[in-house]
Amino acid sequence: MTRKVHVETWGCQMNVADSEKMLSLLQGMDYVLTEDEKEADLFLLNTCHIREKAKHKVISRLGMLREMKKQRPGVQIAVTGCVAQAEGAKLLKEAPQIDVLVGPGKIDELPALIQKSTVEGTAAMATGFNKPGDELKRGHHDHNTGTVPPTLTGKNEVTRFVNIIQGCNNFCTFCIVPFTRGREISRQPGEILAETRRLVEGGAREVMLLGQNVNSYGLDLVEKGDLAAGNDGPFVELLRQVANTPGLQRLRFTTSNPHDFTRPLAQLFADDPRMGRYMHLPVQSGNDRVLEVMRRKVTVEEYRERIRWLRDAVPDMAISTDLIVGFPGETDAEFEDTLKLVEEVQYSFIYAFKYSPRKGTAAARMPGQLPEAVMDERLARLNALQDSITMRQTEAECGAVREVLFLYESKKSPGVFYGRTEHFRLVRVESSRPLVGECLPVLITGGNKTALVGELADRITLH
Fold first, then answer.
1. For 442-454, what is each residue's pLDDT tens digit?
2. pTM of this prediction?
3. Which of 138, 149, 226, 448 lies deepest, with the highest CB count within 10 Å?
4. Which domains does the chain have, with CATH numbers?
């Protein structure tokens, strides 16, 4: 009998990819996706634990589902992702309405756990990680069957995500990821290439390779003797191979740690136009002392060097970053260093957040935890600076013609299409003909800090 699952995903692109893989597993159990909560037999909550606010959203949602389950006792609730891993059995005690709890390293066990909970009438749980050196098994059902994981909403089938490495070995003092995702385990390149090929054959035009630290891809395989490092390292070699997938128009990746970002990787952007002209390179702070306490393994000058590599390779390279304000002990002068770096680099956009202490991390135990008001003020100043930079860049774009890969049509406004430039700027275009999946020249006519506005310019030469 066909059953219906409602999927809710919080957090990073890796969670989106994980949700799509879990949906593929559930389809093997005769589940179909529904956006209507009233129809759902199963609620799948794929959670994020990177900040306290994200965790609170999950707890709040579970409270709502508890009330719903009183009216519909046959409904099942599965909690997956990083909150499931971090909280484990504690979460089951706090939220007994949960039927299944699965950590990121155990999503292949989801069907068996649902079946176990159904038969036994009790909660079923699987958390923990594969050991370093083990094969990364997640997604193996796709590789064995040759099927393409479904998208969650159908909104954007042009861009698809492919996980290439799980976990992180860096243990930055503020970050919970090594505790919720485990140590680094790379997928075999053949699996990645096969999945990419199937996604492109299924309609994808852009693929984004994902990992907590993609620059470390393959190092564990090299250590085991399963992969040759190559002259430029296994990650650069993987990018070259994936970029040659027939029909693939754009290739992106995230996230990179500047500590092990290499010059050959920067040069690849110049060598292969499918790589685009955009790079996300998290810095977290513009001050050396703060970076050292964060255990980022890079100085501000070393970070600047990576920026120079990128812009030597592609002079108009667009760069974005992650920044934390209010890290324990951060002084006013140290925060000013961050503002100076943002002004210097001229980021296209930033992802800036107030420091959020995560239980179990070294930073949570540090002295000098800053008041919320101080963090609020710093975040506002940082965002205001970036907004002014982005608006200057938007004004400079007016009159330019950019190649735009169209990703989706607005549900609320038929005939309005959204796509991204090679520099990853979002562009809004009105058209009487369908544009999704096409890569077309667009004349930029205006915009704001969020998106550019343009019109089709098929016969205008790109510049």
1. 999 999 999 999 9
2. 0.86
3. 149
4. 3-126 (3.40.50.12160), 129-255 (3.30.750.210), 401-456 (2.40.50.140)
